[in-house]
Write a structure and sequence with these properties.
about 280 residues, flat, 8 helices, alpha+beta, single chain
Length: about 280
Amino acid sequence: MRDTVKWVVPLLAMGLLVACSKSDESAALGGGYAAAPSAPMREVAMADAAANGAASTAREKAMLAYEHDVEIRLPAGEIPARLQVAQAACNNSKFGECVVLNVSQRGGDVMPGGSLTVRIVPAGVEPMIKLASADAELGNRSTRAEDLAVVVRDNNVAQTRLRKELERLREFQERRDLAVADMIALSKQIAESEAQLEAAEQEGAQHKRRIDTQLLTLNFQPPGGESGRSEIGQAFRDFGEILSSGTAWLIRAFAFLIPLAVLLTVLVIVVRRIRRRKHK
């Protein structure tokens, strides 16, 4: 009996140790399976962040110059006043920095209308359109954009190159051992480089202005029916002028043909006399 107990107790202890080791291993494996999905999730999150960062970088690199054309239809009698209101709003910077570039107005009964072209900050485009089209009908509208990224990059490269060139030329100019001819040539080259740099800086400023502000053209014109009636009425009013112009043209043509007719008559008479003499 004692021998049996001696063998059974070690066996039970070993069984308990194996069971504990398996349970610990299972727990470890379970923890591993639970943690495994977190790695792909982190990769997806990192990929999304990278994509968002790339999109943001692309937006920053895109240097777009926007231009808008808007057609506004309202009665012909209201066009001059509405044109003045829109122009005053731009001159007074009502919706932000704004500069009037062109104003035109067509009076009379033939296709009355007008147009206003301004350069305005992006935030002021829609408010300006809303002001100009209040209680009116919005017609065709178009928006186009020109990407100036390459042009701006080339301009920056040219400015950097010219500045470095000027710096080297001025260093040479400070030397004491230069001959007079070299000094004259060097001064000429410096003047040319300065002129090129100034032109490049002006071009860069224009590019920046086109990117920071947007071109907006408001075209005012009467509705289609009113415009058609104006054209018909003008056609009747032009009838007399057209008739007189046509008559004058015919008179001029007749006056031009008279000498030709006289010349042909003389030629015919001469030819007939020659033929008669031959027959005799």
